[in-house]
């Protein structure tokens, strides 16, 4: 099938590439000319495992093209995806300007019937707004073209996006049009072979499904962080508690890791946006408000531990920081806990030597040149001259450090483990002080 994808970010580029991989003919459009020129030249703008070879192969095979020409790209697709950003507005609501811009562009240039599919995460009721924006443009030029608008939220995880897209847990199709549902099922048939993954529902339910999924996941994280905060006050180890509760199949082991707070481009903004949606509909979402406030506090946890250890005297200290991306296997630093830690350390007069396997360019872009930050080429280089190590992101590259060497290198022999990645006993046996999240010894 002929497909056009608006937006070549994490969602648009991965979706377009996976659709091309199974044989569809895809054009990816972006307003960012530099990004498109880079893609044309084989440069992938994001780090996502497995993405690069797939983009290159499909581009070479002619099934995946890149363009800044919206009008021509609209002419290409019988299915037009909207996968542009929906960043938070000033009040936390999702900013729909990019989604509606694409909708108007489609209305202005569409010459034949099409299915417009919204993949961006959007407030309930956006499918109606997209339809209205397209209709308005069609009416303005007297064009009577049939357009179906489908809500098809995306559930991929950064760091595993290609795999999630190729092997989705479920494919939510929000549409009340039998024709649109039939075409969408055909589009996704290659991803739906061994068992039924398609869940068909109305547009509004599909839109809410995405927010509900992210809110549930964020709730699990904040809940565990709250338990960790209790654990450390009563002398319990949250890691034992985690195993203890995860063994109940109603709870399960997935996604119940305490840590330095959730970040990324989705959970923070989606929890906030859902809270605003509730408020606009005369409901106060108390759980969501609590999830958010626990997370905000948790992002200050690593600094708090550092500050306590050094009796509030951080000026002139140097901290090695391992991991800057908001989670492993991505270069994305949007809302990353590392950013809060770095700002707090700098405000207290400390210096940072940081390493991340993939987010160094992004860190350079965000922070620029500054005297109190050295971006190091390796985990070891970050330790040189540092007083303490803070592990913020649990990349595999940081999984098994040589603790005796760490003890010999770190001036103050302190390890702050923001992900409970290390075994406290092994760290302490090497003569290092260990602080974890909710492990009865963090205060
Ligand atoms: P992103 O910021 O990485 O990419 C968005 C892209 O859209 C940018 O390249 C931008 O230049 C482009 N764009 C903006 N306006 C455009 C226009 N008028 N025409 C063409 N392109 C345009 O965003 P993302 O992370 O891919 O997220 C996109 C949407 O998907 C968001 O609503 C997000 O909430 C949702 N989502 C993201 C993830 C994720 O893990 N990143 C997962 C599921 C859903």
Automatic annotation (TrEMBL):
NAD(+) binds at residues 30, 35, 86, 121, 158, 269, 334. Residues 320-424 form the UDP-glucose/GDP-mannose dehydrogenase C-terminal domain. It catalyses: UDP-alpha-D-glucose + 2 NAD(+) + H2O = UDP-alpha-D-glucuronate + 2 NADH + 3 H(+). SMART domains: UDPG_MGDP_dh_C. It comes from the Bacteria. Substrate binds at residues 155-158, 210, 255-259, 263, 327. The keyword Oxidoreductase applies. Pathway: Nucleotide-sugar biosynthesis; UDP-alpha-D-glucuronate biosynthesis; UDP-alpha-D-glucuronate from UDP-alpha-D-glucose: step 1/1. One of its GO terms (molecular function) is UDP-glucose 6-dehydrogenase activity. The active site is at residue 266. Belongs to the UDP-glucose/GDP-mannose dehydrogenase family. Catalyzes the conversion of UDP-glucose into UDP-glucuronate, one of the precursors of teichuronic acid. This is UDP-glucose 6-dehydrogenase. It comes from Arenimonas composti TR7-09 = DSM 18010.
